[in-house]
Write a structure and sequence with these properties.
Blueprint (H helix, E strand, L loop, with lengths): L2 H19 L15 E20 L14 E2 L9 E12 L4 E17 L5 E3 L2 E3 L4 E21 L3 E24 L5 E23 L4 E13 L3 E17 L2 E19 L2 E19 L1
Antiparallel strand pairs: 1-2, 1-3, 1-13, 3-4, 4-7, 5-6, 6-8, 7-8, 8-9, 9-10, 10-11, 11-12, 12-13
């Protein structure tokens, strides 16, 4: 686990524990723990840091060496560093301590930029230092989790959640490039992957007063299979104000980190990672 993410997870877990142990003076009901169903709409002002490397693994029999270039999406390809990321969360309480939650959000960016400094190699295609390279990136994350409240009182709840996160991403590069030493021509390289990944984490909430409450969650899961290795992590903390019996407005902070290395896929291997973090505004309806 990366050190920065590990520290964030530890701090978030400690903050949840401290909040749950603190007395909730004047709190009459937890509100959030009483909800049987909820819908949450959010917008995150995300600061994004991402990179890609698609390697041609080479062919010793044909005298073709392995080749690839690590590209920073923001610095090298000109993709936006900040973007609003919308999200939707649906929740359903199955019993006093059990609940289901579904979350989805997506991120799409594109840019055209001249390749600078040196030629780059993407999936066996070499783009010269003067080539105009059109780049696009899109991803969608969908998480379904089952939560169980280990500790639950009228004013606080702390529990564990297990589930599955379905992640899909697609990258495309278009520009004038050369494949295996052939004359340059307009070439398109695409890289995509999709599939479910298991997740596990902690969640907690505490009533601060009749109108105010806070909630947080942390999720982390290492990935290591025959095809992939890496990790995914999520840290989130929010403060809510109940405007009406069924409506709450929230303000919080979220950080997502995702890294996957595809060990091999025929002639190619790939490494992809992105991180985004920032404040978010939430509107929640609960019943």
């Amino acid at each position: 686990m990366p050190h920065a993410l590990k520290q964030a997870l530890l701090h978030a877990a400690a903050a949840m524990a401290a909040a749950l142990m603190a007395p909730a003076t004047g709190a009459q009901s937890i509100g959030r723990g009483d909800q049987r169903a909820w819908v949450q709409l959010g917008v995150m002002g995300a600061g994004i840091d991402s990179l890609i490397r698609v390697d041609y693994l080479g062919n010793s029999g044909l005298g073709l060496p392995a080749a690839g270039t690590t590209l920073d999406f923001e610095d090298d390809l000109g993709l936006r560093r900040r973007k609003a990321v919308p999200s939707v969360v649906l929740g359903l309480r199955l019993a006093e301590r059990w609940h289901l939650e579904f979350e989805t959000y997506s991120l799409t960016r594109s840019a055209t930029q001249t390749v600078l400094d040196e030629a780059v190699v993407i999936g066996g295609t070499t783009y010269s230092a003067t080539a105009q390279l059109q780049s696009s990136f899109s991803s969608r994350v969908q998480r379904l989790s089952l939560g169980y409240g280990l500790f639950k009182t009228p004013t606080a709840e702390l529990g564990v959640a297990v589930g599955v996160q379905y992640t899909r991403y697609r990258l495309a590069f278009v520009g004038t490039g050369s494949v295996n030493g052939e004359p340059p021509s307009v070439s398109r390289v695409e890289e995509s992957d999709r599939g479910p990944l298991p997740t596990a984490g902690l969640f907690g909430s505490v009533a601060l007063s009749d109108a105010w409450s806070s909630a947080a969650r942390v999720d982390y899961m290492p990935v290591d299979s025959k095809r992939l290795r890496g990790y995914l992590g999520n840290v989130e903390a929010n403060l809510y104000y109940r405007m009406a019996p069924n409506w709450s407005l929230g303000l919080g902070y979220k950080a997502v980190s995702y890294k996957v290395v595809r060990k091999s896929d025929g002639d190619f291997g790939a490494r992809f990672e992105y991180r985004f973090r920032g404040p978010q505004v939430l509107l929640e309806a609960g019943w």
